[in-house]
Write a structure and sequence with these properties.
binds nicotinamide-adenine-dinucleotide, three-stranded mixed beta sheet, alpha/beta, binds sulfoquinovose-uridine-C1,5'-diphosphate, Rossmann fold
């Protein structure tokens, strides 16, 4: 069997059989590339980070987005992450041509804090190889940082996606509240990365549909119902439709607000198309695709910085630790199971927003108070569970109004799994298998919202 693969760089020349593959030089897309250095390893296209020559942006202005049901080229930014990896597999299984991009920043935060995913995870390259072995499907792979504009443009020109799914941000509220350095990093990483993506779309192919992950926490907890992104207001006898007001609770959540404003502006001035998914807290660890093989597992965080509430409660219950409810537990959050997340992403990709439309969905399936979440886990857990209330390290309202419109995804076809009827038993099984990997002290929250500087990584 020949070691040569489509697109491999051999003595300075790109090797080509003329057949074309996902992410290959002769992928059937608009525009031309005049320089390229890439290397295909089995099932994985690894990109050397060099900017390509300019492509005429305006040449593609008139082309339509791929209609629903048609195979699309989808670039998943943050494809090594908790949600990005299962989404890439789900889209690949659905028949789309997928490439992932990541700079491994998330793995770096773990090194910084001295923790690791509860479930061991393979390298991105190994995961892609395993997926190829099991399914014969290729997933392209680009390693680099979205805040590097040359790299971002290069990838968009090279892969020529119909859709960009953007997960690639620093996503932990506590991490963004450690100190000045972490807050500034979070906002630069998130806002600048998204700006580079927006400009790449506008210059290279304004027809690309941006599907961007936002957060329910961007709204905060207003004393009125939360609409789906937009609200009609009447003021002094005049009416307007405006972006729903935001009052988020961390510098991370604020970065999502800034992103949303930037994306809405880009839709308005350049006529690009975008879907902003204000997602609630995700729980769960397996999707049908990741469950096929341990080597396809996605990460599962338990620490007080990146571990999210329901996953932490499951892990705490298995370890025999009390479930740590912050404050009195009456604060309510929107939640969604990981299998619904990947379906929502598929629905958003396959039903693109119109050109110029900044479309917003509240991507959650139910609202529960933290106490209700703890009580549900306590009821379902095979172990005897206790619930403990900690002084809330965050500044957040308790006992507030919370009524959210989240019908958009259901109208597109989502059939939600609710916490009570979800098979969280599998989560207990997974947790038991890997419980020996927990560093218990990492579960205790040390980041205090009321102070400008806290310690992590002890
Ligand atoms: P994650 O940290 O596991 O994944 C994000 C990935 O993006 C990581 O692999 C990271 O290395 C990569 N990344 C970060 N900055 C990058 C950059 N500048 N260039 C290239 N890659 C970069 O996070 P996740 O839990 O999978 O969340 C994905 C997205 O969904 C985030 O935008 C998050 O805000 C949003 N979201 C997550 C949840 C949740 O509960 N996990 C809920 C709502 C919204
Ligand atoms: N909480 C506890 N105990 C814990 C952990 C959290 O009571 O052990 C409480 C928090 O005080 C908060 C709620 O649970 O009221 C949610 O906290 P979380 O850490 O699970 O989630 P959050 O910080 O809001 O962030 C997570 C993801 C983020 C995403 C967000 C969606 O990390 O990427 O944007 O969920 S949302 O909450 O809708 O904004």
């Amino acid at each position: 069997m020949s070691l040569l693969r489509e697109g491999m760089l051999v003595n300075g020349h790109v090797y080509s059989t003329g057949t074309g593959q996902v992410g290959s030089e002769n992928a059937p897309k608009k525009g031309t590339l005049t320089s390229r250095r890439s290397l295909v390893i089995t099932g994985c296209l690894a990109l050397v980070i060099t900017p390509c020559a300019m492509v005429d942006a305006r040449s593609s202005l008139a082309s339509p987005a791929a209609p629903a049901g048609v195979t699309m080229k989808i670039l998943v930014l943050g494809g090594d992450g908790y949600l990005g990896w299962p989404t890439a597999l789900h889209l690949s299984e659905a028949g789309h041509h997928v490439a992932v991009l990541d700079n491994f920043a998330r793995r770096g935060y773990d090194f910084e804090m001295g923790v690791d995913s509860l479930v061991p995870i393979e390298t991105l390259q190994a995961r892609i190889r395993v997926w190829h072995e099991l399914t014969g499907k290729e997933i392209g792979c680009y390693i680099g940082d979205l805040t590097d504009a040359d790299f971002t443009y290069h990838v968009v020109r090279d892969f020529r996606p119909d859709t960009i799914v953007h997960f690639a941000e620093q996503r932990a509220a506590p991490y963004s509240m450690v100190d000045r350095k972490h807050a500034v990093y979070t906002q630069i990483n998130n806002v600048m990365g998204t700006m580079n993506v927006l400009y790449a779309i506008a210059e290279i192919d304004p027809d690309i549909h941006l599907v961007k992950l936002g957060t329910m926490g961007a709204y905060g907890t207003p004393n009125i119902d939360i609409e789906e992104g937009w609200i009609e207001i009447e003021h002094k006898g005049r009416k307007d439709r405006v972006l729903y007001p935001k009052r988020p609770g961390s510098f991370y959540h604020l970065s999502k607000v800034h992103d949303s404003h930037n994306i809405e502006f880009a839709c308005r001035i350049w006529g690009i198309r975008a879907t902003d998914l204000n997602q609630g807290v995700v729980y769960g660890q397996q999707t049908p695709q990741t469950a096929r093989d341990d080597r396809l597992a996605t990460r599962y965080d338990y620490d007080a910085v990146f571990g999210t509430v329901l996953n932490r409660f499951v892990i705490q219950s298995v370890l025999g630790e009390p479930l740590m409810v912050y404050g009195n537990g009456s604060q309510v959050r929107g939640i969604i199971e990981i299998r619904d997340t990947v379906r929502c992403l598929q629905l958003a990709c396959e039903n693109p927003a119109d050109r110029g439309d900044f479309r917003v969905f509240n991507q959650m399936t139910q609202s529960l108070s933290i106490t209700q979440m703890a009580e549900t886990i306590a009821r379902v857990s095979p172990e005897k569970v206790t619930i403990e209330h900690l002084a809330n390290p965050r500044v957040e309202e308790e006992g507030h109004h919370y009524n959210v419109v989240h019908s958009g995804m259901v109208e597109l076809g989502l059939e939600p799994h609710l916490l009570s009827d979800t098979l969280i038993e599998s989560l207990f099984e997974i947790t038991k298998r890997f419980a020996h990997r927990v560093r218990r002290e990492a579960m205790i929250p040390t980041i205090d919202w009321r102070r400008a500087s806290s310690l992590i990584g002890l």
